[in-house]
Amino acid sequence: MRRLPVPTREAATIEIVAEQAGVSAKTVSRVINNERGVRTETRERVLAAIEKLDYQPNLAARGLAGARSFLIGLFYDNPGDYLSEFQTGAVQRCRESNLHLMVEPLDAADPDLARAVSTLIRQLRLEGVILLPPLSDLPEVRATLAAAGIPAVHIAPMHRQDDAPSVDTDDRAAARELTDALIERGHRRIGFMLGRAGHRATEQRYLGFADAMHAHGLAVDPKLVQTGNFEFTEGLECARSILSNPERPTAIFASNDDMGAAAVCVARQMDIALPQQLSIVGFDDAPVATMIWPQLSTVRQPVRSMGRVAADLIIQHKPHLRGWPQPMPRPHLDLDVILRGSIAAAPTDAA
Amino acid sequence: MRRLPVPTREAATIEIVAEQAGVSAKTVSRVINNERGVRTETRERVLAAIEKLDYQPNLAARGLAGARSFLIGLFYDNPGDYLSEFQTGAVQRCRESNLHLMVEPLDAADPDLARAVSTLIRQLRLEGVILLPPLSDLPEVRATLAAAGIPAVHIAPMHRQDDAPSVDTDDRAAARELTDALIERGHRRIGFMLGRAGHRATEQRYLGFADAMHAHGLAVDPKLVQTGNFEFTEGLECARSILSNPERPTAIFASNDDMGAAAVCVARQMDIALPQQLSIVGFDDAPVATMIWPQLSTVRQPVRSMGRVAADLIIQHKPHLRGWPQPMPRPHLDLDVILRGSIAAAPTDAA
DNA sequence: AAATGAATTGTCAACGCTGTCAATCGGCGC
DNA sequence: GCGCCGATTGACAGCGTTGACAATTCATTT
Asked: DSSP state, B327?
């Protein structure tokens, strides 16, 4: 005997359920796994027994016997405010398929990163991994995963990989739309604050901006385009530089809300009336967007949906079907443009 | 044969390691689990074999055989920006003990919450659970956990439970210290924006404020104390109410940064010079605190440490030692008061 | 009614590890 | 050198489930 004679009722096992339903354990297993080849009447009897006994299959046993883990990994560095939203979406999708999400922080700068990843995937026997940026762009992470034959989904990578799906948002279209909103209001000279160099988002948002300008026959003045890094502090510099231009723009497009907030600060310090003398737009709909005055017009990322979609891709991946479907799935999610108080008609003397 | 004749080298098992080290599987198991009663020389031989074969014990098998899961749950509702920090700390602590964290979103308003919790803990065989607010205050969650005999740690609960440890921060002391900073600068009339009624933080922060006022022989004017709910929007109302008082205060203490940011907005709209005519302080050191101008003086919560400590409590919980140590551990973590540009000397005419 | 074959169900071993308990080893006292 | 005892080590079953494959059932066909 291994167990103490505890009075507590032990958790039901598949064997108990089988007995209750008058079938073999294997049949119960079939029902649990939704396999075909079980007579409807039998299935219902088993289901009833499961219900009655409040049976929960033992994950560890299932994993051990079936050589799988029912676990998907979500690897991240830099916990940001979007992480929790993203993981919530991913967990929701996992639950629909009775899987679980293992959220694992990793240090992108760790020289031993490959080993850390390897340990994780082998210890947990992960069935798939979702890589949040910047991990989605680290060759050693991708290589380790690939070597282990573990399907990986890259979220908003800078560079797409041919052998792995990625989930992106259509930043370019949204940036274009947001810029249109400024142009419609009479703005002609518009400053632009770039994000960190090398990021896909940086490029796409700028391209969308440029698209809109060109579509309206407007030139982009290079002196009004400054490189930031998505951070507030750096944003202050950019904004100062843009706003101290002799020919001051009437609007600024910041590549994210943090930098947009920075522009708001600088404008205040320079006694520029907002939004009358200067319209400002951001990107991401971060909490800060609605916590400053005027509230930033921005673009909302469907972060939770991205989590869902990413998990879904992993779940759809069927090893026996030679891996990923072709062409490689690259879902692009639509963004919502949100117009708030930070934009107004361009000052008439500048129109 | 269950396995296909795959050419890939199979992952090493305990049996392979045993063979390599010239011992039995059981001895390898002893080494892995750090049990005593293994000769040093033998242990080293086993360790060498593990190293050489790059062996990773199979979690599922360990769990199944040992009737444990190596899994700790982190249950949350309302993913906030602090969640990712918290979970990062918890994961770090878990890794030190070779455990894993299952992060599970739950809906506090779900009428079937108890069942959801029950399913989770039984399916995953969780060894312990960390409850983030507001889950830490839901009786049905606590009861379900208790009935299953699963140790739970409550994070910043409104109401402490006798049978479970909680992790708190000393909000009261920090609020007092922050208020002192205002009083030192000559402020006498100070407004206060309360958080959501019923929250422990709401109460503690106010008490700390009141402590400081009384310690300096200052009265708290009830007309300057407004109830908010920790949210920006509601904060706007509170701030308007406080600032439209005929005898305007020279400083405002907001119970969190979101409401502090709201106060900044309102002051701007009312053309009150910041920080010359009005000092504002917040709480939490949220991102927004440094994204507005002037930057908010505030208090930083050691969120990551709280995650570490919470996981540590679960790990320390030894079922065979009759559960929790007595007295019930209630770690209180210190907060950091951060003074920034949002506070200045009180206007002289008001001193 | 017997034969046929597809559909359904069951048997049994194995997944990789740990608990129980028995076997072996090594040192010490006499 | 022998016996004894504690320290090490090993043999073996079993954790709860699933894969492979065998057995059974049942509706058809002839």
From this structure: S
Do A171-301+337-350 and A69-169+303-333 fall under one CATH topology? yes
DSSP-assigned letters across all residues of B240-300: HHHHTSSS--SEEEESSHHHHHHHHHHHHHTT--TTTT-EEE-SB--GGGGSSSSPPBEEE
Residue B79 has its nearest CB partner, among A85, A232, A286, at A85
Whether omega before A294 lies within 30 degrees of 0, making that bond cis, reads yes
Domain boundaries, chain A: 14-57, 69-169+303-333, 171-301+337-350
Torsion sign (Cα): A217, A223, A227, A231: negative
Shortest distance between the Cα of B219 and any Cα of chain A, in A, equals 31
Which two three-digit tokens encode residue B214? 């009384």
Q: Is A66's CB less than 7 Å from nucleic acid strand D?
A: yes
Strand order in the sheet with B190-194: B225-227, B190-194, B251-254, B279-281
Q: Cβ of B24 < 7 Å from strand D?
A: yes
**SS3 category, B153:** strand
Query: Does residue A96 carry a pLDDT above 70?
Result: yes
For the question of whether the overall pTM of this predicted structure is more than 0.85, the answer is: yes
Report the chain A residue with the minimal C-alpha distance to residue B126.
A59
Q: Report pLDDT digits (tens) over B320-341.
A: 566 788 888 999 999 999 999 9
Domain B70-168+303-334 in CATH 3.30.450.20? The answer is no
Tell me which fold the domain A14-57 belongs to: 434 Repressor (Amino-terminal Domain) (1.10.260)
For residue B169, report the phi and psi dihedrals to the nearest 5 degrees.
Answer: -115, 155
pLDDT digit string, tens, across residues B8-20: 456 899 999 999 9
